[in-house]
Amino acid sequence: MKYKKPVSVLAVIHTAALDVLLLERARHPGFWQSVTGSQEDDEPLLETARREVREETGIEAAAADFIDWQMVNRYQIFAEWRHRYAPGITENIEHVFSLCLPERCSIALAPDEHLAYRWLPWQEAAAACFSWSNRDAILELPRRLAASAGAG
């Protein structure tokens, strides 16, 4: 069995108007989240984010469209998912990225991973997330967007 690496990405997809895309987990109906996924082998983290966005939403985005927040979260892996990792692995390291789209778009879900999607204003999206790290990243979006607009 090939174990998952305890290194992942969180890719918050949003519009300039701060509408945020959330996906409902297939194995946990009612659990909403942004795109997440584990790094494969020695794949660069930006490529992990691009691959996961493509696999989970059908969105083909260029590497230059992603912003690497240089933010890392460490959290306990839920006990029910630890069998996917090597024995003794209990923590995951998550790297945060964002992807700004011009407007809301239709999503091609990966049915084995997600049941539904919805676009919500950022405050509602943050409140709907089951993950604290996902919630905190969405709450950070307005500041990040303002900072990147000021830098441009």
Write the layout of secondary structure elements.
Elements (H helix, E strand, L loop, with lengths): L6 E9 L3 E7 L6 E2 L1 E4 L6 H13 L8 E11 L14 E11 L12 E8 H7 L3 H20 L1
Parallel strand pairs: 1-6
Antiparallel strand pairs: 1-4, 2-3, 2-7, 5-6
Helix pairs in contact: 2-3
Describe this structure in words.
The chain is α+β, with helices and mostly antiparallel strands. It has one domain (7-146): Nucleoside Triphosphate Pyrophosphohydrolase (Alpha-Beta Complex). Helix content is 26%, strand content 34%. The strands form two sheets. Strands 4-1-6-5 form a four-stranded mixed sheet, sandwiched between helices. Helix 2 (122-128) packs antiparallel against helix 3 (132-151). The longest helix has 20 residues, at 132-151. The chain is globular, with a radius of gyration of 15 Å.
The whole-number mean of residue pLDDT values reads: 94
Largest beta-sheet characterization? 4 strands, mixed
The name of the CATH superfamily reads Nucleoside Triphosphate Pyrophosphohydrolase
The 3D shape can be described as globular
Overall tally of structural domains: 1
